[in-house]
Each structure stands twice: as structure tokens, then as C-alpha cells.
Amino acid sequence: MLKPYEEYKKIDLLWLDIIPSHWQCMRNKNILTEINVRSLDGSEELLRISQYTGVTIRRHNKSKVGMRDAETLEGYKIVKKNDIVMNIMLAWNGSTGASAFDGIVSPAYSVFRVKQDVNPWYIHYLFRIPAVTNYFKAYSTGVIESRLRLYPEKLFMLTSIIPPREEQDQIVRFLDWKLAKINKLIRAKKKQIELLNEQKQVIINNAVTKGLDPNVPMKDSGIEWIGTIPEHWKVLYLSQTATEQSISNKDIHNQNLLSLSYGKIINKDINTTDGLLPASFDTYQIVHNGNIILRLTDLQNDHKSLRVGLATQTGIITSAYTCLLPRENVIPEFLYLLLHSYDICKVFYGMGGGVRQSIGFDDIRRLLIPVPPLEEQKQIVDFCYAKSNFIEGFLVGIEKEILLLTEYRTRLISDVVTGKVDVRGIEIPEYEAVPDDVTEDELDGESVTDDEAEEAEVE
Predict the structure, then answer these.
(1) Three-state DSSP state, 284
(2) Is domain 8-186+401-458 annotated with CATH 3.40.50.880?
(3) How far apart are CA 112 and CA 454, in angstroms?
(4) Residue 283, SS3 per DSSP
(5) What is Dmax (Cα atoms) for the chain?
(6) Of 3.60.40.10, 3.40.50.2300, 2.102.10.10, 3.90.220.20, which CATH number belongs to 234-371?
(7) 132-175 pLDDT, tens per residue?
(8) pTM surpassing 0.85?
(9) Using one digit for the tens of pLDDT, what is the confidence trace for 78-115?
């Protein structure tokens, strides 16, 4: 069990009141030097900075917004190994870190080099703890959160706490070791979640395409990816089981904003100030309980998102999505589960071939789907929901464990870099480094793009 230092002293900082008695308080201008060296041709490795992973190599995907073609990277800022990179628009949420790579970053980002007797990786850990990011937020410039900026001149005025160099080195070694262990546990639990979700999908897919009776006579469905289906089932066009519904919100002015997220229709705050919502919702469409929502946009770029959701309430959603109203020969929950399986099996992507990014109801109306009798649909829906709820129970427990591990990791870093616990003298064994397990999609979702950052620089 980690113990506190023997002696502390009081300090007068906005974010901290005591530190070990032999530690110092220093202005960041005495710790960091800003570096502003530009790339001549943009040929260096393109890097990114994230609140989750710090500085990583940015996979060059030209199809994503904000990703630059190689010839446009001229003038990007040079980063050397151990430099500190800060996204000035997201410093308040931890988008600062030391780089393990040589490369380049957006001209809108700030690059710093530590001065003598400072370990850059100690600064990496320090600048990412909640107390410091809140400190950065308090001194950032801007009216709304999504446009807050911490400029270098303001950063240099702020104060950091600095242990002796050999103690900084030990703190970094200790945290690298402990975080590798925690990250390994989190990865194992995320793998459990992945396997359980796969198991759930196999159960649903088999139920909606094969039925619940394994001994029933089968026939060829004429649908290549499904193969055989129960002999007494029908094969119908989608248009024979659902119609397109399009009810404008222009004259209704419904304020219950809905969004399709990870295959679920969720409520969204209509009063959010993150700048991502329109000024008027007159162009949105009304959806009701039992409507099935399909996001058939960006088909060529995005092959990972879940695109089918079932509405369980009345509200509004973007008119860019296709809204289906099931006919009387199909239960909405069954059609949703079936189209969800089509989504998982990537059927819609083949329909958006060529240069088409988006398709609509006319493109999918002749989609063939297997349709059991209504009573059997109900049995399948009850079975799938029961199995899903059972598995969801396990998933909730695992997700809670991940949350606790994540909170422990955050608290441990904070306690160590602020001197609440003493890690001197702790022997660090050999270990395998395990970085945070964050996907490229998650990184793209949480980051301000280079384009947005550069626009802010110009403002």
C-alpha cells in the first residue's frame, strides 16, 4: 500500500494546497520553451494528440474530414521525440502530452520542449490530470466550451509543481508500470464485451433468419448471405413489409430531439451549446414509436457504424435518415432485429456501390427479406429480447468494472504526480508496455479536426 510523504508544505495554487516539502512550484515559462519549426514538404509522420492516448501516429485516411493529403502538410509544425504537444482548443480535457515519435502536427497546435532537469513524461502525466485540466480551463479564452483555447502566453503564466529530477524519473517509471497492468486488465474486459456482443448477434441472426425450431423443413431463400430459411416462411420485398414515412416538423415544432447512436435511438439535449445542432429544427422529421430508422449515408467512408434503430417514442430526427413504417404483416421489433442483422452483415454497403455515399428507400425497397407468420415473429422477438437482456446483464457488470478501473487509473496518476503518495524506493519489475485501448473511430469522435483548429487560430 502506498504511503504519503513524511513532510508537506502549504502552497497557494488554485488547484492544489499542499505538496511534499522538498518539491518546488515553478512557472511554466521556466519549465517549457515553445518550438515553432515548420516542415518544408510535409513528408514527416503525421501525429495526433488525444485526451485518451496522448500523442500517437495519425493513420492517413484521406476519406475522413480533417485528414490532409500529403501535399497539404507543408508548414505543419515539427515535433521531436519527447516534445510536449498541446491542442490549444482541447487542453481543458487533457489533449496534451509528450511525444514518443518524431513527426509533424497541425500548425494550430502548440509544441514545447522541456528545459533542463525536467522529465517530459512527468509533464505528460501532470498536464493530463483533472485538477490541472480544470486549471487550464479556468484560464482558457473563449465563450463556449467547444471554442476554449489555452494560448502559450497564458500557459507560461500558470504554475506547475516539480519534484527533483530523479524523483520525476521514478514517478514516470512507476506510472508506466502500473498503467500497463491496469490497461491490460481493461483490454481483457473489453475483449469479454466484444465476445459477448458477438454471441448476442449470432443468437439474433440465427433466430430472425432460421427461426427457433431446428427440426423444421428448410428451403432456399434466394438471399445469398442467408441461405436456407424455414419452408413455411415467405420471402418478400422490403416495400411489402414497410412504407417510407416522411412527416415534416415544420408545422408541428416537436422539441423531443432524438439521435441514432450505436444502433439505438436516444434522446439528445436540444439546448446543447456544442455548436453541432442547427438553429431551427423545421427540416427535421417526426418519428413515432415503432418506426425503424436507417442511416444510409456516408456508405463508402464509414463501414463500422450501426445504421439501424427502433424508435420507442415520438420525437424528431434528422431528415437525412430514412424512416420506415412497418405494415400489418410484420411486427416492428421483428423487422428491426432483421434489418439490424442485415446491418451487421454489411448488406447496405453493397447497395451504395460506386461513388454513391448515400441511398434512400427507393434503393432498398426491393431488398428481399424472410418473413415468418406473425405469431412466430412474436415468439422470435420475445426469444431475442430475453437472450439480449440476459447478456446485457453481464455487459453492464463488465462495463462497471472497466469504469472502476478507469477511475482508479485517473486517481492513481493524480495522487502520484501531486505527491499525495510516495513512490520512491519502489522497485519496478520488468513488464510489457500496454497502451490505452482506444479505436481510431473513438479518437476521431473526440478530437477537434485540424481544419477546426486552424480556423480557430485564424479567428
Answers:
(1) coil
(2) no
(3) 18
(4) coil
(5) 81
(6) 3.90.220.20
(7) 999 999 999 987 776 799 999 999 999 999 999 999 999 999 99
(8) no
(9) 999 999 999 999 999 999 999 999 999 999 999 999 99
